[in-house]
Amino acid sequence: MRVLLGLLLAFVPAAPAHADNVEPDHVARAAAIRPDDPGYAGQWGIVRTRVNEAWSSGRGNARVTIAVVDTGVSRLPDLAPRMLPGHDFVNDDDDPTDDNGHGTMAAGVAAASGYNHTGIAGACWYCRILPVKVLDAKGAGSYSDIAEGIRYAADRGATIINLSLAGVDDSQQLRDAVAYADEKGSLVIAAAGNEGASRPDYPAAIPSVLAVGAVDEHDARYSWSNYGAGWVDVTAPGCNPAQQVNGVIGQFCGTSSAAPLVAGIAGLLASTDPVPTIAEVRRALVGGRVDALRSLAALPYAGDTVKPTVAFGATPSPARGVVTVSAAAADQHGIARVQLYAGGRLVGSDAAAPYTFRWPSTTGTVALDLRAYDRAGNVTQIRRYVRADNTAPALRVYPRASSVTARATDASGIARLELVADGKVAARYNGYLRWFGIPAHARTVQVRAYDRAGNVRVATVRR
């Protein structure tokens, strides 16, 4: 008997959003990556699940393939460079072009290229995409085609198999196909369904399938999302911007949208070293609303030899007084601690972002070293030379009856000279040498010299 599946889809065209064209911000309080893709400004789900923070330590790997078993996938510029040859089980040919739009949007949420001025930023930028068409132009398909599509993806080495589709009936045919994919080492992820019911939908309710429900920006379940602690394994943002087959960006809502976001995060996890097993990836994802950083930290890290990344934040030079030094650090399995050394001496150690240190600066050129340690003990050290100046400038004054000439010198350079009459600034000059006229009837007169580090020297001219 042929069983048809309802497609889980809501697509509302929207005016293109615009993000600032900026480079990744590597200071400690802004370590998350902000891509320049036009649709990124509306991708609250990426931020909510901390995928943008996980990008600091990895954005996927070409060894990981995400199979999109759906209505097909069109070769949009955001997807085409990483698309593998696929198959159409509806028309029995090798052209899995999308004639509906649903599969293309699912593929984009999972794996659209990021930071390329195009479309949106998918979760896994460098994962490959395997298009498998099992649903027709109306979004319906038979269990037999879906089962064949799952087996096809598994045979071609798909690491992740995304199924943004659901039916109300259980099926041994689907169970056998999922078991086959399990044996081949594929993680099958499926949408829980959009009836707002606790009744299980399939294939999501098959025990080894990772079933995904949908939540809003406050982590509350969308009223239309299916639910059930006994069979829904994880939730994810259920409304995500995506490109249709014509390239238009709009809201793609449903558990059909939540599932590929989890698939993309699974791709990030599978891209780490040492390579985790599919069972380890699944365990890291399960529970509550998906969180990319939490899931990365849950992976085993024994055997990890990949060093973390670390960068200085804004550090004043010349430095003066007690200076706040910030840092950003990232690692595929998490940062254990970051340390700051000044002139070879430990200033401080910080185990949680944002990484900040208070350094009592001295005078002269000082080597500042940042050391970042990951959970496996790998360490990365970087150095920055900072000139410290805590010495006031030299100042000479040449007073006359109604004027004064001031000359200041300092290794850091002079920022400005000020004439102060009766406690108020009467004149200011940005330079090191200046003649000032003294205001009539001024009783107290001083000259102040400021160096570029902010140190000040005061000379009294008249009392």
TrEMBL record:
Active site: D70 (charge relay system), H102 (charge relay system), S256 (charge relay system)
Pfam families: Big_7, Peptidase_S8
Stretches assigned to the Peptidase S8/S53 domain: 63-286
Signal peptide coordinates: 1-19
InterPro entries, A to Z: Ig-like_fold (IPR013783), Peptidase_S8/S53_dom (IPR000209), Peptidase_S8/S53_dom_sf (IPR036852), Peptidase_S8_Ser-AS (IPR023828), Peptidase_S8_subtilisin-like (IPR050131), Peptidase_S8_subtilisin-rel (IPR015500)
Protein keywords: Hydrolase, Protease, Serine protease, Signal
SUPFAM superfamilies for the chain: Subtilisin-like
Family statement: Belongs to the peptidase S8 family.
PANTHER family with a match to the protein in the record: CEREVISIN-RELATED, PEPTIDASE S8
Name of the protein in its database record: S8 family serine peptidase
